[in-house]
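lol ok so funny story. i was supposed to be doing the assay writeup but got distracted and ended up predicting the structure for this chain instead. priorities right. anyway since i did it might as well share w the group, maybe its usefull for someone
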Amino acid sequence: MTPDSNEDPTDAILLDALAPGEDALLTLDELAETSNISPVVISVLVREGWIVPRRTATGDRYDSADLGAVKAGLRLVEAGLPMAELLDLARRMDEAMDPVAILAVDVFARFVRDSVEASAASTDEAAATLQRAVDEMLPATSALVGEHFRRLVVKHATERLVEE
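and the output, tada:
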């Protein structure tokens, strides 16, 4: 991706770092076929925030993480969780997490990107440093958030069991 004349020179590097590999992306119909779920249900999952498509020049695309999320949801439904309740949880999680994600991007911009751009000897050096930062920080953030949620579920389940 080439930045236009109004873009910061590192914008294209960051956009490329955040973009999934093109070979792993599926259309909605391909995701539906791979997961054995109708495209209508996949569309509902997108609308409720269960999965978030990647916006590309050729339309919305999905990756293996989306397929994993769909399959995980199916396991929960097969275990007895009503689909309506699962969709409600997805919607609530999306509503709660979106503002936090926006804040996380702002924090990265203020404390990582601005610092790197101010101290780098060149645009190339800044780009390489920011690429490494994204490559390290995004998976670390995902692990941190996932583990924190797991611990909260265990905490509240334990408290509920003790109360009963």
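The radius of gyration is 19 Å. The longest strand covers residues 54-56.
back to the writeup now i swear
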